[in-house]
Amino acid sequence: MDLGKTPQIGGLVNRAKAIILQPSETFPAIAAEQTTPGDVITRYALPLAAIGPIAGFIGGQVFGISLFLVTFKPSLMSGLTMALTSFVMSLVSLVVVSLVAEFLAPNFGGEANRTQAFKLVAASMTPGWVAGILGIIPALGALAIIAGLYGIFLLYKGSTPLMKVPEDKAVVYTVAVVVAAFVLSLITGTVVGRVTAMGMSGAGSIGNSDSVEVNIPGMGKVDTSKIEEAGKQMEAAANGNVTPVDTAKLQALLPASLGGYTRTALDTGAMGAMGKGVSATYTSGDKSIKLSVIDSAGLGALAGLAGAMGAEQSHEDADGYDRTKTVDGQIVVEKWSKSGHGEFSQQVAGRFFISAEGEAGSIDELKAAVAGIDQGALTGLAK
Questions:
Q1: Same structural domain, 43 and 71
Q2: Do residue 119 and residue 223 come from a single domain?
Q3: Domain membership flag for residue 1
């Protein structure tokens, strides 16, 4: 990527920021750079792809890893193995998708240029890599997925300047790359865990002005017109004017008690300009609820993508249920196990997240805990 030779986007941090916040201006400059696929991997992708695995490893060791029914702290060796696997898979994905982007470009009026394909895909993976730092606080880790969705928009924005795909075919090309790359990942075994149960497909008749929907079972429909709208909001967030709310102000929103539950602990976490979070633990006998308030700050536009895509998901079995829905453009997650463990999380103003999780008497207790946070006051802190 010829890092450092283009002053306006030189340096790893400045380049990543420019790609995420100002793609329209940055992609033409990147297209003109003289570099190789090897340089893209070693001088750009390697350090960024390591962010998520490292943050996830630290977060797992400090806070533990929460799955649907349990929270556990992996052993040191297990944590290192998961981090290494995640890191390697990220680089494998870069190579696979780049080759797909190169192969498909001529079919949509573009040019089969391997170097440009690597530049394009590395750029599209940038928000997911950067947001990987949120893995240090498990409650924020899901935002990395939202950031990855923004990468679809970046893939679309860069397809014309980098792969020479005509603008009227850029959306179709983007969907084709995403679908083909996903299917190829399934075939080659590079998708792990529950992701293997997901599929992607384009829908609808596509014309120059038509929007395209990418259906993601378990998540919802990603409408390209909404992705572009959210992308414009992301570009508007340039210059870093959004700052996270002070943790003391967030803590002040946490109640001293929750009904019959007494507050027994307070915790805070911060990632500079990327966001802050506070949480309190409340106990009553053998029951315990952890109430968290998270400010995604500079990633607010990325968080807004979740609402923009209208996420919907539902699963129920003999042990309990897991539901995700969009209410007035805000994500709401509800999980409950018959063992008495559950979670209720709600997105507020596209930027904040309130979450109650733990061993409770019922899901209603978790909902009441979230409702106990003054959403109006929380939203006002961002002004």
A1: yes
A2: yes
A3: no
Which stretches within 132-288 are classed as H helix? 143-163, 170-188, 224-236, 247-251
* pTM, 2 dp: 0.52
> pLDDT tier at 4 (50, 70, 90 boundaries)?
very low
- The domain that holds 286 is classified in CATH as 3.40.1000.70
Half-sphere exposure of 13 (CA within 13 A, CB side): 1
- Amino acid at the residue 63: F
Q: How many CA atoms lie within 13 A of 367 on its CB side?
A: 8
What is the pLDDT at residue 42? Answer: 81
Q: Per-residue pLDDT tens for 144-183? A: 666 767 888 999 999 999 999 999 999 999 988 988 777 6
3-class DSSP assignment, residue 110: coil
What is the Cα Rg of the chain in Å?
Answer: 21
Residue-wise pLDDT tens digits, 197-242: 333 333 333 333 344 444 433 334 444 455 455 445 444 444 455 6
Structure tokens at 281: 């633990």
Range of 363's domain?
247-380
- What is the domain count for the chain? 2
Mean local confidence (pLDDT), 275-292: 88
- Considering the domain architecture, whether residues 208 and 309 belong to the same structural domain is answered as no
Kindly state the tokens that stand for 327: 């209410």
CA distances to 165, 172, 202, 224, 316 from 206, rounded to whole Å, are 16, 7, 10, 12, 35
Report the distance separating Cα 296 and Cα 307, nearest Å: 14
Residue 358 pLDDT > 80: yes
Q: Same domain, yes or no, for 224 and 280?
A: no
Domain termination residue (choose one: 225, 240, 255):
240
pLDDT tens profile 305-315: 555 555 567 88
Query: First and final CA of the chain: distance in angstroms?
Result: 38
* Domain boundary residue, one of 177, 208, 240: 240
Q: Assess whether 226 and 261 both reside in one domain.
A: no
